[in-house]
Amino acid sequence: MGQQSLIYAFVARGTVVLADFTEFSGNFTTIASQCLHKLPASNNRFTYNCDGHTFNYLVDNGFSYYNLLLFTIS
Questions:
Q1: Residue 32 in 3-state DSSP?
Q2: What is the DSSP letter of 6?
Q3: How many CB atoms lie within 10 A of CB 66?
Q4: Any idea where the domains of the chain sit in the sequence?
Q5: Which of 18, 27, 58, 62 is most buried (most C-beta within 10 Å)?
Q6: Which InterPro entries match (predicted)?
């Protein structure tokens, strides 16, 4: 069965990140911020999978929630 690890998460209002968390280093914080500026303002949910990583965005009433998960097979 597979396992997911949280790599990065943030909560934003509009395009301003209010809080974020990671225990890792990498350019994913910059990429996530760039994607935040491209999200539609309407309430919506997005999931992208790439190279074993799952990118989740939820836009709800002006707030954006994001997490980046790493999926590993054990």
A1: helix
A2: E
A3: 22
A4: 2-73
A5: 58
A6: Longin-like_dom_sf, Longin_dom, Synaptobrevin-like_transport
Of 27, 30, 32, 74, the residue nearest 54 (C-alpha): 32
Which residues make Cβ contacts (< 8 Å) with residue 30, sequence separation at least 6?
none
C-alpha–C-alpha distance, residues 44 and 56, integer Å: 11
Q: CATH top-level class for 2-73? A: alpha beta
- Structural contact between residues 25 and 73, judged by C-beta atoms closer than 8 angstroms: no
Cβ pair 64, 45 in contact under 8 A:
no
Query: Which among 58, 51, 74 is positioned nearest to 4, based on CA atoms?
Result: 74
